[in-house]
Amino acid sequence: xxxxxxxxxxxxxxxxxxxxxxxxxxxxxxxxxxxxxxxxxxxxxxxxxxxxxxxxxxxxxxxxxxxxxxxxxxxxxxxxxxxxxxxxxxxxxxxxxxxxxxxxxxxxxxxxxxxxxxxxxxxxxxxxxxxxxxxxxxxxxxxxxxxxxxxxxxxxxxxxxxxxxxxxxxxxxxxxxxxxxxxxxxxxxxxxxxxxxxxxxxxxxxxxxxxxxxxxxxxxxx
Length: 222
What we know:
The structure is a single chain. With 222 residues, this protein is of the alpha+beta class. Among the domains are: 7-69, Winged helix-like DNA-binding domain superfamily/Winged helix DNA-binding domain (Arc Repressor Mutant, subunit A, Orthogonal Bundle), CATH 1.10.10.10; 143-217, Ferrous iron transport protein A (FeoA) (SH3 type barrels). It has nine helices and eight strands. It has helices at 7-21, 28-35, 39-51, 66-88, 94-107, 110-119, 161-164, 169-175, 208-211, and strands at 55-58, 61-64, 143-144, 153-158, 183-189, 195-199, 202-206, 215-217. The chain has a six-stranded antiparallel β-sheet with strand order 3-8-4-5-6-7. A hairpin with a 5-residue loop joins strand 5 and strand 6 (195-199). Helix 1 (7-21) packs across helix 4 (66-88), helix 2 (28-35) crosses helix 3 (39-51) and helix 4 (66-88) crosses helix 5. The longest helix is centred in the middle third of the chain and has 23 residues, at 66-88. It is globular, with a radius of gyration of 18 Å.
């Protein structure tokens, strides 16, 4: 568990878990993009993780073993609890909280994790709507924002991890009020997936990269 494994092992298991959670093909190239390292570095680390019994590779697809998934879920749980604490209690921005939580996840003790969960009221998601492993999270019937037609109302449900790692996106989403629980309306939907929404009384343009990943439910309140 965290503290028993090298932080790099924890980071790789976390990345594999989150890629799979976002339905992204878990291959070495995607891991390299997520972590920001070279393909040879990923290849070497996957060999080490395999030797430790944390992953398996089948026809180029990388999967967590039972032990690897347990480790990943605990790291992800602590990361998302930390994000919630840093935003809800300390008032940090989404982007700052994401960066800080990346440090906390490797050093948080079980006692701190338990206390943080209690103080936060046992949350089921991080600030971006991603489920906290081990919580009583129930997935809503959500779909990508890009699938909505002009005139559709929606409520933001979840900002997948893939968008958290895209430079500047968290700041943009928070600044634009495209955050879980906020309701809006699609005012324009282009064929390329680009959409314009009205939210919090202002128009916001959303690129296809973001609109295809932002998950929403609907309809939102009038």
